[in-house]
Design goal:
The chain is built from 26 helices and 14 strands. The protein is mainly alpha-helical and about 700 residues long.
């Protein structure tokens, strides 16, 4: 049996796959990640036609999943960590492609494989073709995957009992998959996942939050009504004949109340016509007679009842019409664009309501991924009951927590984890739980299937369609949206715009605070990894800003503000050091690298203010800490910053628009004051004078820089 070898625990009564079998199903394994699709829980070797190659593939996959086995651990180039089922599924898929390609080349024995075959296969896999079969691009990532399959068989050749590569074959001259494919150079140490463009992020988040905060109560109410109707329908029998009079009384009730008859589902309508049960010109062609029968207490409407009821049915239809069963008499909601109110929906068929509930579930998953930074695997581990009771920290202040599992980098089954989240994320989880219905048991996955591209594209099509237009939702442009991209976007936003607003007008500072609190609660948890990513981005941001300020200094554009003298002194010393190095070793000095090395220490002290840069070098000199009475704090209090007086603050041309706006706003306020508001006028005049002084300093340094450039 394979499961004990791999360290898998099976459900009671299950046996698991055996090595000699050609299909290895792992559905009965306890603790598999929830995000695994059914096909990823199965390792299928049957596509490999050559039986000896199939044995080689089995031995290779087994070695990857059991690296501590006696036959594997002594191999010089074997992997030392257990490879996950997901990883092995991907490697097996690539092996199948590799063996198929070898067969097409006429290779029948792995000893016939040469370095040419290895290189030719990787070139074949790396090429991207257009519809006409022309090569349009070369994928370094795909080349790396293909190289990994070939290199893996070479690394484990001593283990194989059947066919294997020749001992003297060194695929790609010993190069690694990442280096030989160019993938390492392509990434350059950077994160390959790019953040969402603001053109995609803003309408996406706006639509997501609109669905959760405005549409959710109405969708949930109709979904509950649908569940109640289905429960009643299941209790009915198809053998009971309610009688002609029962139908007549029901039709009279429709006429008296003005309630329309129920429309038939389009699929059922097409099926009925295909079987010849309804004519296309029949006025009752799209009326659901089964719904009418259920209203009378029986599950099915028999065709023999129709002739006697037709006159009354047609008369009732003419008086009240027919309509979809859900969303009748919809309440009005505020449009997403603020342009008045509109009915939250048009009447919905059962299938349309099902799709709408699915869009709401997708919106909940998107909100959690975008505002909490959860990975795909972590989203899959959120279950009914994951919301913890809110903890009240003060009047109107609450801390919201979710429990889940940390999967990435952990043993099978993961470890318990906890997330501190914002109220918007907490509400999204609450809506996702309610979508499952009141009978959903604790532990039921909330997002199943886990958020994927198909569900997102369906959601986007709805937002961009007639329903989204009617509700005032802005169209979402094309663009790949994944949990990875959403996590990356959140990290970049917090790092580069601290204290600002997210595209959907959510406070970034709130998101940063909950991430930091989540790290403090569980330093080894998932939010610790997100915070580490944010810190890396902040460090890169600070170095980039400081380099730009230094380049401005070299062009003669000096910083202004109380802390300008210290910053200029630093730049002067850097210039002197660079000059000294260039004289001593001009052939090896790299100015860019040297500048980064010299400025990196100062970059760590940079904190972005709304209208200034704060160089938090000495807490004792920080004006904000002195005003707050906390001189030992390790971070500045941006909300109390007075950069015109703080000795560690500087102003730069990029801050001019903020100060100019402050000046204009203050002038408007002063002009609106009455004669008796002398105290308020004096306070505002001081603020106006400060803004004008800062603007004059910024303009003076910028003009000096332009004059120096003209002289040069």
């Amino acid at each position: 049996m394979l499961c004990p070898l791999f360290g898998f625990t099976l459900q009671p009564g299950a046996t698991g796959p055996f090595f000699d079998e050609d299909r290895w199903p792992f559905d009965a394994v306890i603790g598999l990640p929830a995000y695994l699709r059914p096909n990823q829980r199965l390792l299928d070797f049957t596509p490999i036609a050559n039986m000896e190659w199939r044995l080689t593939a089995k031995e290779y996959i087994t070695a990857l999943m059991a690296p501590r086995h006696a036959a594997v651990r002594d191999l010089a180039h074997a992997e030392r960590t257990v490879q996950t089922l997901t990883t092995c599924h991907g490697k097996l898929s690539e092996l199948i492609r590799w063996f198929k390609w070898l067969t097409e080349q006429g290779i029948t024995d792995l000893e016939q494989v040469t370095g040419y075959h290895c290189t030719a296969y990787v070139d074949f896999r790396g090429e991207r073709l257009d519809d006409d079969g022309e090569v349009v691009a070369d994928s370094a990532s795909t080349r790396a995957i293909a190289m990994g399959a070939v290199i893996g068989l070479a690394q484990y050749r001593e283990l194989f009992s059947g066919q294997r590569f020749r001992d003297d074959l060194r695929p790609f001259d010993g190069a690694s998959a990442g280096g030989g494919s160019g993938r390492t150079a392509e990434l350059g140490g950077a994160n390959k996942v790019q953040p969402l463009a603001s053109e995609v992020q803003q309408p996406l988040l706006a639509a997501v939050l609109y669905m959760i905060q405005t549409m959710a109560p109405h969708i949930l109410r109709e979904a509950e009504l649908k569940r109640q109707r289905q429960a009643v329908d299941r209790s009915l029998t198809a053998t009971r004949h309610p009688g002609h009079s029962a139908f007549l009384r029901n039709l009279a009730r429709h006429v008296e109340s003005g309630e329309p008859l129920e429309l038939m589902d389009p699929f059922a309508e097409r099926s009925t016509r295909a079987r010849g049960l309804r004519e296309e010109d029949d006025p009752l062609a799209d009326v659901s007679l089964s719904a009418l029968a259920r209203e009378c207490g029986t599950r099915q409407f028999r065709g023999g009842w129709l002739p006697a009821l037709r006159p009354d049915l047609e008369r009732t239809l003419a008086l009240v019409g027919a309509c979809a069963p859900y969303g009748r008499r919809p309440a009005e909601v505020e449009r997403a664009d603020g342009q008045g109110q509109v009915a939250w929906t048009e009447p919905l068929l059962a299938t349309e309501l099902k799709f709408l509930a699915g869009y709401l579930s997708t919106a909940c998953g998107l909100a959690v991924a975008a505002l909490a930074g959860m990975r795909h695997c972590e989203l899959g581990e959120l279950v009914v009951g994951c919301r913890q009771p809110p903890q009240e920290l003060g009047p109107g202040l609450f801390r919201y927590r979710l429990t889940g599992k940390l999967i990435k980098g952990q043993p099978l089954g993961g470890i318990r984890d906890e997330w501190v989240v914002t109220r918007e994320v907490y509400e999204a989880i609450e809506v996702a739980e309610q979508l499952l219905g009141p009978n959903a048991t604790p532990g039921t996955p909330l997002f199943h299937p886990v958020f994927c591209d198909t569900t997102y594209q369906n959601f986007r099509a709805w937002v961009n369609g007639p329903a989204g237009t009617r509700l005032g939702l802005a169209p979402i442009p094309k663009g790949a949206v994944t949990p990875r991209a959403l996590r990356r976007t959140l990290a970049v936003e917090i790092a580069y715009r601290p204290g600002g607003l997210l595209a959907a007008k959510l406070q970034l500072k709130h998101l940063s605070v909950v991430t930091t609190e989540g790290y403090a609660a569980r330093p080894g948890g998932a939010q610790a990894k997100l915070l580490a990513e944010i810190n890396e981005l902040e460090e890169a941001r600070n170095i980039g800003i400081l380099i730009d300020v230094y380049r401005d200094y070299q062009r003669g554009i000096m910083p202004s503000g109380p802390g300008a003298r210290d910053l200029i002194s630093l730049f002067t010393s850097v210039d002197g050091r660079l000059h000294e190095l260039s004289e001593n070793a001009p052939q090896i000095v790299n100015n860019d690298l040297e500048v980064v090395a010299m400025l990196s220490t100062r970059a760590r002290t940079l904190h972005l203010g709304t209208a200034n840069y704060c160089w938090f070098i000495d807490p004792a000199k920080a004006l904000c800490l002195r005003l707050a009475g906390t001189p030992d704090a390790d971070r500045p209090l941006a909300g109390m910053c007075d950069s015109a007086r703080c000795p560690q603050a500087t102003h730069h041309p990029c801050h001019r628009p903020v100060w100019d706006e402050s000046r204009q706003t203050t002038k408007v306020f002063i002009g609106s004051l009455g004669r008796r508001q002398k105290t308020e006028r004096a306070r505002l005049e001081v603020s106006l004078a400060r803004a004008e002084r800062v603007l004059a300093e910024i303009d003076q340094t910028a003009a000096a820089g332009v004059a120096r450039k003209d002289e040069i």
